[in-house]
Each structure stands twice: as C-alpha cells, then as structure tokens.
Amino acid sequence: MPRPVADAHDSRSTAHGLDRLRVTEIFYSLQGEARTVGYPTVFIRLTGCPLRCTYCDTEYAFYGGQWMELGEIMQRVAEHAPRYVTVTGGEPLAQRPCRELLTALCQRGYEVSLETGGALDIAGIDPRVSIVMDLKTPGSGEERRNLYANMPHLARKDQVKFVICDRADYEWSRAKLAEYQLDQRCEVLFSPCHGQLNPTELAEWILQDHLPVRMQIQLHKLLWNDARGH
Fold it and tell me: Is the distance from CB of 198 to CB of 192 less than 8 angstroms?
C-alpha cells in the first residue's frame, strides 16, 4: 500500500515556513457530532491518515488533496463568516502545520475544534482549541494504535469519543472509562457505529449501567448519508 500522503514529513509542507497544508476539502455544513452538534460550522478536512479503521467513512481523504497556503485557507474560512470551525481529516495532526493553522484560527476569534484519531500526540496544541479525540475500540481494527500518553493532556473543554460496533466494544469502552476516570477529565461520547449497532441497543446499555457519558448519533449521516461537502 502506498505511504499516506500528508504524514507531516513531506518536504513540500515545510518549504515555506510550515505554512502549507494538503487539503482535501473546505466546506460549510452543520456539525454532525460532539458538543456543537447542529451548529453551522466550517470544516477544514486535511489529507492523509496513518490509521485504517474498519468503519472509516472518509477514505477519500487518505490521498490526493491540494496544497494550500495558510493565508488561502484562512480566506476560504472567512468567506462563510462562521462562529465555529472544525479541523478534521483524515488525521489532521499527521501534518505538522496543523498546529499553526489551529492557532491562526483561534487568533481570528473562531471557536475551534480538532477531530483527531488518538494515535498522535496532542501535547502543546493551542489551549483554546477543543480537542475531540477518539479512543479506537477493538471493532475499529486499530485499538493497538491508541496513544494513552494523551490522557493527561485532556481538559474539561475536550471530548473523548468511542465508536462502538458491538457489545464487546461497549464493554471495552466502559472499562477504559473507569480505568482513566475519563468523565472526571473531559466529556465522554459514546457513538453507535453507523450500520453496525442499533442506536437503541446502545442507549439501553448506557441507561442500565448508569454511565456518565453522552450518547450521540451522527447528525450528518441522517441528513446527507456521508455525501461529500456535508
């Protein structure tokens, strides 16, 4: 398999003072999950990802994209005059200039969130950014890639997301919730894997166990069924 494109070590991303990123798409839509679900949001989807989760719904972001200067990205975002901006992927932290982009967005006064898969270091990210970090369940096929050293860097403004494929994933997630006392660190999201787990089943399990988590169903899948640009 070819090497993922934007892994932060491509010389072209560093040729102009760490101010270029490879971008799959920039679009304006409703946030489909996490704390700001339902709010109009500008999404910056960066290209490249070191993970290959079984349920990935953005495989088109693994390769391709176009190189964009930081100023060009900021201009595209400003055209929508948003309050909320989400940097996502792929895996956005696979490109070193992502951190510079996050800070630039915060400096413009946007409410910024970062969606990351949890395999890369989140230390040192601008403290104004709300981090939405996955812990990969066994059903994802990428459980071994979880970087548990990230846990101490989570704050109350952040969120940890578990995408749950079956009962085994649920039990694993419940154990991690207790092991790391995640509800004491940040907000915890349990999300049924679309097309694999009946959301009602997950809701019943959460209620039976009185878990201190927020269940979420991905709004964008209900509205647009994973159509690009939404």
Answer: yes
The DSSP code for 4 is P
**Is the Cβ–Cβ distance between 57 and 140 less than 8 Å?**
no
193 is in an annotated binding site: no
Does 32 show up as a binding residue in the annotation? yes
The answer to the question of whether 56 is labelled as a binding residue is: yes
Q: Look up residue 115 and give its two tokens.
A: 């969606």
Q: Is 57 annotated as a binding residue?
A: yes
| 88 belongs to an annotated ligand binding site | yes
pLDDT in tens, 79-102: 999 999 999 999 999 999 999 999
- Annotated binding-site residue? 109: no
47 is an annotated ligand-binding site residue: no
Backbone angles phi, psi at 61, to 5 degrees: -90, 0
Mean pLDDT of 160-189: 98
Whole-number Å distance between alpha carbons of 177 and 20: 37
Domains of the chain (ranges, CATH numbers): 11-224 (3.20.20.70)
Is 87 in contact with 106 (CB distance < 8 Å)? no
Q: Is 106 annotated as a binding residue?
A: no
Read off the pTM.
0.89
Q: Which two tokens stand for residue 52?
A: 């290959």
